[in-house]
Amino acid sequence: MNIGIIVYSETGNTLALCEQARDILTGYGQTVTLAKITCNDIKLDRTLRDAPAADRYDLVILGTPVQGFSLPVPVQDYLARATFAQGVKLGVLVTQYFKADWLGGTRTVRQAVAALARFEPVFYGAGIVHVRSRKRDEQVNAAMRALTNFEGKF
Ligand SMILES: Cc1cc2nc3c(=O)[nH]c(=O)nc-3n(C[C@H](O)[C@H](O)[C@H](O)COP(=O)(O)O)c2cc1C
């Protein structure tokens, strides 16, 4: 499988977890590319600078923080414009500050999947990590299991 991990990260939290997922999948012998979505200036100009190609991947893990209880605007813009393979297998990895999924994480996952509906993605799993939670390590482990263990999923 050709796997793409596509990540938007402003302060490194989501990126670090995406790198962890990449390393696990690489250890399983998968071919993995990690690519970053960036904008021109996170404060002054949130138009996209890097919008990585996504159509070559059979499976994509999208990594994103929660911003304002939602998918960040640059990620919304990216997903509205990017081309993914039809029927792409899709996992979503989200980080957030608040310690409850309903304070943004759940909605952000749902928004990401909905934004790619035109490609009829096969949504196979999600991980939501609360970066300041005492349960963070457990959440990271659960996220890695959900996103990197494909057994019985396809
Ligand atoms: C503009 C902005 C809005 C945010 N809104 C939320 C939010 O609604 N809910 C939440 O739990 N965390 C929120 N956060 C915190 C981030 O989701 C959290 O710090 C995340 O791990 C950052 O990921 P990153 O380091 O990959 O950029 C917000 C952060 C920023 C900068």
Q: Which keywords apply here?
A:
154 residues; globular; single chain; Rossmann fold; alpha/beta
Folded structure, characterized:
- This protein has 154 residues and is α/β, with parallel strands linked by helices.
- It has a single domain (6-148), classed as Rossmann fold (3-Layer(aba) Sandwich).
- It has helices at 13-27, 73-81, 105-115, 136-148; strands spanning 2-8, 31-41, 45-50, 59-65, 89-96, 122-130.
- The chain has a 6-stranded mixed beta sheet, with helices on both faces.
- Strand 5, helix 3 (105-115) and strand 6 form a beta-alpha-beta unit.
- It starts with a strand and ends in a 6-residue tail after the last helix.
- Bound molecules: flavin mononucleotide (FMN).
- Flavin mononucleotide (FMN) binds at residues 9-15, 65-69, 95-98, 103-104, 131.
